[in-house]
Inverse folding.
């Protein structure tokens, strides 16, 4: 009887621990906060207006203290990351998968066999440094200007 009771307690403890472990994520990730135009600092909105006059339908998000403006310009999907004082950090432009450097596509074929590139983008930072992003299997892979894998 004592052994049965101890076994039952051990099983109960393991089940309880497992339910708690799977209920709370081990890694915390902060999702981007969607904002209305009213919540965006004037300096940030001014940067978008200066760089892309007449931009309409801008969708705002705040992530890691920066503001992200998403919109379509001349048929291309753009995403600008701007700090709270209005400084442009980077511009991300959605591109066709075929527009990625051949070395990016070759890397994905070799290291992620059987998976396809879902989305592709060209990213240019404030200093003009270009990188490429390829979404594969729900993860963003980053490549340098020549298509060499970074992370």
């Amino acid at each position: 009887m004592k052994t049965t009771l101890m076994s039952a307690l051990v099983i109960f403890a393991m089940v309880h621990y497992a339910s708690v472990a799977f209920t709370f994520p081990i890694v915390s990730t902060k999702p981007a906060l969607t904002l209305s135009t009213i919540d965006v600092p004037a300096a940030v909105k001014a940067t978008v207006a200066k760089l892309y006059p007449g931009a309409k339908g801008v969708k705002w998000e705040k992530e890691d203290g920066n503001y992200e403006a998403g919109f379509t310009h001349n048929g291309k999907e753009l995403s600008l990351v701007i700090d709270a004082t209005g400084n442009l950090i980077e511009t991300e432009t959605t591109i066709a998968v075929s527009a990625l450097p051949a070395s990016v596509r070759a890397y994905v074929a070799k290291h992620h066999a059987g998976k396809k590139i879902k989305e592709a983008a060209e990213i240019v930072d404030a200093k003009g440094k270009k990188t490429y992003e390829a979404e594969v299997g729900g993860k963003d892979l980053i490549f340098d200007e020549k298509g060499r894998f970074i992370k």
User: Anything to note?
Assistant: The CA atoms of residues 129 and 146 lie 11 Å apart. The chain has a mean pLDDT of 82. Helices lie at 2-23, 42-51, 102-111.
